[in-house]
Amino acid sequence: MQYITPLWPAYPELFLLTMACAILIIDLFISDDNRIFTYGLTQITLVGCALLTFFTGNADPVYTFSGMFVDDLMADVLKLLTCVAVIVILVYARAYTAARGMFRGEFFALALFATLGMMVMISANHLLTLYLGLELLSLSLYAMVALQRDSARATEAAMKYFVLGALASGMLLYGMSMLYGATGTLEITELARMSMDGVRAQAVLVFGLVFIVAGLGFKLGAVPFHMWVPDVYQGAPTAVTLFLGSAPKFAAFAIVMRLLAQALGAEMLVDEWRQMLMVMAVLSLAIGNLTAIMQTNLKRMLAYSTISHMGFLLLGVLSGTIDGYGAGMFYVVVYVLMTLGSFGIILLLTRGGFEAEELDDYKGLNQRSPWYAFLMLLLMFSMAGIPPTVGFYAKLSVLQAVVHIGLWWVAVIAVIFSLIGAFYYLRIVKLMYFDAPLDQSPVQASGDVRVLLSANGLAILILGIAPQPLMVMCIEAIRASI
Amino acid sequence: MTVQEFIFWFFAAILVFAALRVITARNPVHAALFLVLAFCTSAGLWIQLEAEFLGIALVLVYVGAVMVLFLFVVMMLDINLARLREGFWGYLPVGATVALLLVAEMALVLAGPYFGLSEAPRPSALPAGHSNTKELGRLLYTDYVYPFELAAVILLVAIVAAIALTLRRRKHGSKHMDPAKQVAVRSKDRVRIVSMPPVKKPNGGGD
């Protein structure tokens, strides 16, 4: 049994897997009217998983499963946040999925398996487990996008996502095989040691690195690998867009850290991938922000805004310093918080049969519901990076990290494009506050959604006023793990 | 050239040719058959590397099961080749340029000294009685137990997804049989004998 000891670091994953399988079976015996029971079980599972992650957390890295699994502080923090994010997603999505025939056992089972995939990715210490986690997540997401199988748009989006996702996986795998060819190992800690010592086949290592960066770019949705993002965001049912746009970013950040900062974190290799990330980051900022201005569909606009946010995230990573990685992690947390809130508002305004995804649907929201208009205002200010919301602090810390390594011109470009980007965020604020509403129906929401959405919006403000604890936590997590 | 080397080059040449034909064959059925050939030859190469289990599994699983199923699918689906080829010549110049550049760049790195025969020496021969299968099984259930289980979970997700996306439950009231009920039927369920007193027609006569 020495191969799987100690087992306790993997308790959250084991619990999640067991419960997901159990829910899959229990759901068979539940009639459509009582589907809420499956929903409750799913939420209990996620809460349990979060608690287990919290109580099995520890500061020093623990390796298990023959060194394929690592439980360090970064993994604990990211896993905890992932579980919380999925809980919030399912609460927001309940009314929407129920109105569209998606409130089914498969939806919850796939969401749980996707969560498991994210947790596996976050805890991966071996390229094989990292890849398997990624596939577990991706396969669940493809299926969730296509779950509305009679909608032509959703199936088209799923098809595009599937084909491009497979291409990205291929690139990632090819890059990994090159790393294996150059070093003879797939274990991340081992790779880090070998690349630190310098391997003879340095050129092969760099060659593999190129494919790995391209594959990661695809998965993050950074330019020039961003083509799938707008179509998938728009075509997928909004509840699924909320899912795939938020929680998986934690896992994506984790694998970027594991692959680039840990496995290929040697000084010489950092110089190599910094160049590539820089090009991707600057292009993402430019194309994301400029194209978002032209959009009339809010989901599509948020997709382009995601691309630009990924550009910012890459800026934090490319600094290659602990503070930079910490800033990147902080940015991901803030990004997910903002995405949850803004898609939460979209889901809130969506009623049976009516999708509130055009910008015009937000006209005069202030007259219909001043509170939700205020929350949306906070979210949009935060995305644009206007103080005192947390979005400002997130952008600032990333820029500080970039300036710190002397790339001040990149910081200047980032600021210019954020200014351009502020236009389309503020346009929504203008539509909500200064235009007459197209439809006067009051905004209705169940109690749990109201409370969570309000907390979500206020968190943006509170974290913006007091960002220090979160920032310290992010930097500590990175310091303890990298 | 030893016999072993000759066999290697022979299989390798067929493998490369078959793989090329897979992507160039016009007829999808031919492409699938060339894929079968490619699998068979690579199985031969694996057996030469003393990986007998993998070689046999490749033939049994891929050639025997997967490819046959695949051939069925290809034959059943009426793929419109003309539509697939639409725009082929329009995209060819750009596509070919990019592909050639990529191949050239990759060749520059990969044709270097890193992947020469000296870098990958022939593995030492294994002792007689060495069981490849046992060795694989030992690894799968010890060192690789975590990825092994994960792969199983991925297959489970694939099943869930496939069923969720394709299963359409018939509506109630559609005419379907319940075999259990059919078997359990008894004569008195089918025929109900009703005793009725004879009734005289009111008019007395027929029409």
What would you say this structure looks like, in words?
The complex is a heterodimer of chains A (482) and B (207). The mean pLDDT of chain A is 92. Chain A is 75% helix and 1% strand. Chain A contains 20 helices and two strands. Chain A has helices at 11-26, 36-55, 73-99, 105-122, 127-145, 152-183, 188-197, 202-220, 228-235, 238-245, 248-263, 267-293, 298-318, 322-349, 365-368, 370-384, 390-404, 408-434, 447-465, 468-481; strands spanning 62-64, 69-71. Chain A has a domain at 268-482. The two termini of chain A are 29 Å apart. With 207 residues, chain B is mainly α. Chain B folds into three domains: 1-82, Four Helix Bundle (Hemerythrin (Met), subunit A); 87-122; 130-167. Chain B is built from nine helices and no strands. The mean pLDDT of chain B is 84. Chain A binds chain B through residues 3-4, 17, 21, 24, 65-66, 68-69, 104, 106, 109-110, 113, 116, 120, 126, 128-129, 132-133, 135-136, 139-140, 142-143, 146-147, 149, 181-182, 200-201, 203-204, 207, and chain B through 106, 109-110, 112, 114-115, 119, 142-147, 150-151, 153-154, 156-158, 160-161, 163-165.
